[in-house]
Design a protein that fits this description.
There is one protein chain. Helices cover 36% and strands 29% of the residues. The chain is built from ten helices and ten strands. Helix 6 runs antiparallel to helix 7 and helix 7 packs antiparallel against helix 8. The longest helix has 27 residues.
């Protein structure tokens, strides 16, 4: 029996979002179910530049990974977890590319002030500028502590850059960075850039190794395939209401499906209401029916069929993922197993 996990339906839409449909809160499974199932974890080392810093950030990311407000991972010294499945994270860091580009430019700046925020005179001044870009790849690896087998590994790319300029009337521009006496203040030396680029990989790792609570949209089929339905003003009204009054929208789809039980877009959009209410079994049935009904229309524009097929695929995957998640939590909540003192060596 599948237990809904964090599936509070939110019949509303995000501010500024114009794609017709209904937003709701749900849980998405990690890209690697095997990594997500390894919930007792330890962080070893990451070889390469800033490896120690990254290992600490990686461990903090694991410690702060939650689902439904509960910690997903249990961090401990794997040597004292006899009899329990434990995963050890380690990896490598590589600097793929580091570029420095230097140049001059003329900028109009205030050279004389009468007071705070009160510029008396502006002039064109020469600025010395440096642009830096740094690209890295990080290759985390999760291995089973008992068997040594790799559970999960992937390559994550990170990029960071900055541009800094300064005005210095005392030094001229001559033969690039090396000959400019004040240029050292403009160059990061890869330290800050490296940490910034590495930081940008952590959220992508988190998505791959643990489930997460998200807001997703059950998208409406915005165009009616059946000409008779297209002529019914309620169809357009129901589509538009999804952006402002989801309750009215779903009420209209219920009325429309009673009138047009074999209209693909209507059946699909009734399924969107079921999906937003976290009734994924009913949504999958409606979407599957809509695909079958659409197949009866010869020469159907593929762009009209695409959202229906996409909805069926998405909900089918969602049902499967939630069943996996339910197995991982044994039908309970997201909290990882708590180690007993005797098991932790305390």
């Amino acid at each position: 029996m599948m237990r809904p996990i964090a599936l509070l339906a939110v019949l509303g839409t995000l501010v500024g979002c114009t794609t017709p449909g209904l937003n709701y809160n749900t849980t998405l499974m990690a890209s690697s179910p095997a990594a997500a199932a390894t919930r007792n974890v330890s962080v070893s080392h990451f070889a390469g530049p800033a490896g120690g810093w990254y290992a600490r950030q990686f461990e903090a990311m694991l410690a702060n990974t939650t689902l439904d407000g509960q910690a997903w991972f249990a961090l401990a010294d794997y040597e004292y977890l006899a009899g329990q499945p434990v995963g050890i994270y380690s990896g490598t860091i590589n600097i793929v590319r580091y570029d420095v580009y230097d140049y001059t430019r003329m900028e109009k700046k205030c050279v004389e002030w009468d007071g705070l925020f009160d510029c008396e005179r502006r002039e064109e001044v020469l600025e010395y500028c440096v642009e830096e870009t740094l690209e890295v790849d990080v290759r985390p690896r999760l291995r089973d502590a008992a068997t040594g087998e790799t559970v999960f590994t992937h390559i994550y790319e990170g990029r960071a850059g900055n541009k800094r300029c300064q005005t210095d009337p005392h030094y001229g521009w001559s033969h690039g960075v090396g000959n400019y006496a004040g240029y050292g203040d403009l160059i990061d030396g890869r330290g800050v850039l490296l940490r910034e680029a590495l930081s940008r990989t952590l959220q992508r790792v988190r998505r791959d190794i643990a489930p997460r609570n998200v807001t997703v949209k059950a998208v409406f089929a915005a165009k009616a395939i059946d000409p008779e339905v297209a002529a019914d003003p309620r169809f357009e009204e129901a589509v538009k209401a999804g952006l402002s009054d989801p309750v009215l929208s779903c009420s209209l789809w219920t009325d429309l499906i009673a009138t047009y039980p074999e209209a693909p877009a209507v059946v699909h959009n009734r399924g969107a209401c079921a999906e937003a209410e976290a009734d994924f079994a009913a949504a999958q049935q409606f979407y599957g029916q809509a695909v079958s009904l659409a197949g009866a229309y010869a020469g159907l524009d593929p762009s009209l069929l695409a959202p229906i097929l996409s909805s069926l695929e998405r909900v089918s995957d969602q049902r499967y993922d939630l069943e996996l998640l339910d197995d991982m939590t044994e039908g309970g909540d997201a909290e990882p197993p708590v180690l007993k003192p005797s098991e932790s060596g305390a």
